[in-house]
Amino acid sequence: MSERGIDIAGAVRSGEELDILAVDAWLKSRLGDALQGTPEVTQYSGGASNWTYRLAYPSQDGSGHDLILRRPPAGTKAKGAHDMGREYRIQQALRPVYRYVPEMIAYCEDESVIGAEFYVMRRLEGIIPRKNLPRGVELDETEVRRLCTNALDTLIALHRVDYKKAGLEHIGKGAGYIRRQIEGWSNRYTQARTWNVPSGRRIMQWLEENIPGRERLCITHNDFRFDNLVLNPERPTEIIGVLDWELATIGDPLMELGNTLAYWVEADDDFLARSVRRQPTHLPGMLTRAEVVDYYCEKMKIHTENWAFYEIYGLFRLSAIGQQIYYRYHHKQTDNPEFAKIWIFVHYLHRRCKQLMKQHRRGL
Fold this sequence. Notes:
38% of the residues lie in helices and 11% in strands. The chain has 364 residues and is an alpha+beta fold. Helix 4 (177-192) packs parallel to helix 9.
């Protein structure tokens, strides 16, 4: 981090080196004289999916091009995963109607250039709020609340985009989204289940039986968290960018809100929840999960009598994501020690789901 808390990249990880000469030649063949010299290459450590690099081009007048390159990780991948072309085109179409999307520069589908497809975009210089705000960024309670509501307003603005006018209707499958999500995550959890985690049958059955009768469709980011936001370094309560559009689709806005709140850890949550916190939602001034729902629904003029469904869905989906990661560790496909105890967290998330199911039955 810089003195202002600006997010910066570090050294390129061993085994993930970028053929910068090939990238530089490819970029210059498209941008021509706009690029001068050879860029300095660094790599961002955050995220566990696509590899992200910074390409800082020099210039004599100090106005060098500051670019970001994203590519999929090496090795095999599931069909449809890490689709750089899709992610690029979504952002390119969305940017004119949603100002938080970075400027897209170019997309390369020719895997012979660096061994994988990739795309390049303009870097947004700012603060990324991860588990804690970076050193030197201090917000009082009023400012934290403003940051929180600004983040929610950014999500609301996305959900209000007319995706048909933006030419993005094709990125989703249309009606039936909620049912497809329940069936899809149930199948993923079942396929990734190991002997030391719950079967999840009661939760999956409850979700199936409680699918809401009404479905709304809008553009959803599907990984909307503070660590995918970029803050203005001069005014850290202001959102200037939203990153990581890999999972974006046409979906239900309340399903997205449920996903977002599954990661929302409050200051007075239990020890296990606090131990896996990855964004600064514990700070004094942050809205509680209940306050987030009220704020969002009031702004969107949405009324729901069964919020429990969306909350339980978000928690169960997160358990399936965690279990998919743990499955790889359990079967020695990775030896990352951070994955060794994820199965405990899966138990915890299922317990929270069952507590909410019980409260729903009692009408609480």
